[in-house]
Sequence to fold (533 residues):
Amino acid sequence: MQAEINTKLVNEIKKRRTFAIISHPDAGKTTLTEKFLLFGGAIQTAGAVKSNKIKKHATSDFMDIERQRGISVATSVMSFEYKNTLINLLDTPGHKDFAEDTYRTLTAVDSVVLVIDCVKGVEEQTKRLMEVCRMRDTPVIVFVNKMDRDGKNPFDLLDEIEGELNIQLHPLSWPIGMGKDFKGVYNLYDKSLLLFNAHSKVTSEDLPVNDLNEEVVEQKIGEKFASQLREDVELLEGVYGSFQTEPYLAGKVAPVFFGSAINNFGVKELLETFIQIAPLPQPRPVTTRIVEPTENKFSGFVFKIHANLDPRHRDRIAFLRVCAGKFERNKYFHHVRLGKNVRFSNPYSFLARDKDIIESAYPGDVVGLFDTGNFKIGDTLTEGEDFYFTGIPSFSPEIFKEVINKDPMKTKQMEKGLLQLTDEGVAQLFTQFGGNKKIIGCVGELQFEVIQYRLLHEYSASVQLNSIAYYKACWITSKDPKKLQDFIKYKSSNIAEDKDGHLVYLAQSEWFLNTERTNNPDIEFHFTSEIHK
Ligand code: G4P
Fold:
């Protein structure tokens, strides 16, 4: 593809790791993020990271939530350096109503750290997030948190995670006791003991222990825990053997660490291992080929759009993941969907110590682009070549409402507003076949409030949203065009088109969906759709 490999570019790529921390709300994502940033020197004190967690009592006040989301723009991407590695940590909203935002952010990372609460084990959102990671074989490191609490037995927990998340695990550290008896962890990777002291503010030092039969083990953790540890480690070494990075990088095996984020315990080991094993910015499939990060020509895609809620400033920030080559300020790039050249005079970086306009960015980096409505999720920028990055999914919404225009004089504004809001990924828009009924689908109730409010305040369009009892929207395809046509004809009142013209079957209930699937074996029902295939 290219004559010479650009050494500077290769070095920049080698320096970078781009990842996200994911968890069910309350497992400790924010706390772990903060500890990482402390290690990276990006913040100086604990408590500096604003939780983007949406407070439970505020669920009815979406303005408050949007305000909190506004704060979270600044922390959407946190970049910091640790031991010569430039780490881009992409934040994901914890609230389940914004789950689609999280799923799309996962398309922009090369790996994830999954936090699990040792008391609660695998929770609902943990499963959903992992399903998204499995779709792309994203490498995962598991951090079992809150070991200072009485949680589940670690062996049971491993079984539960493997069973529920459908991934093989490989513990790299092992807890000694738990709850008020938590003594620390034994690092199976570099064979050392890390002792826990709940009241210590400093990270304790590793104590190398090559042979667990050494006397020092008893001295440090007592006889009972020493003999339990020897037994556990013998079993673990027998079962897991030595750790290999290839299956991890292929998304098949997830290394596991135990610790306590709030006590800053086990976090450094996690970070150290992360920078050693986590993948560099990876090659990515596009509609025509695979794009290598080392390509001299720049390319990247928009995975998230954040709108400004102030109606006087209808600007938005588009988050662009750089996938190949070098992004440069003021250079013209090719906006593939619009077929025109665009340039950016104020691209925004998220480097914590220097949140400012940047001159250039490299693969793995995320750039914030001020946008006045030119972007939608999934848009690709290149240096001239026509392709789209693939694998950016839309998920079947779970709540549906019909849009009723209350002011026919404002039809144009309403349509424009609906298009722009759905471009941002706030919701999905379906148009019913024949009837032209407009239906909005969302993952959570909150988005409907956001849409109604924004249509009125930004587009002067007043709408009523009437609930429709649909259960799921499934994208339908078939190898047999005739069968598909028949199905559409027969089920026309349940058929709609999404914004990109893809056919969708709107199922009233799980029962209806299952019945149609059984009765129409030639029709494929998909719960996700890719923006570009
Ligand atoms: P999230 O972003 O995943 O939603 O979780 P977050 O870090 O906000 O942590 C959720 C709660 O769990 C917080 O308590 C936090 O202090 C606590 N936590 C995090 N790590 C540990 C740990 O290792 N051990 C224990 N025992 N607790 C931990 P909170 O009371 O909800 O909030 P706060 O008042 O402490 O901020």
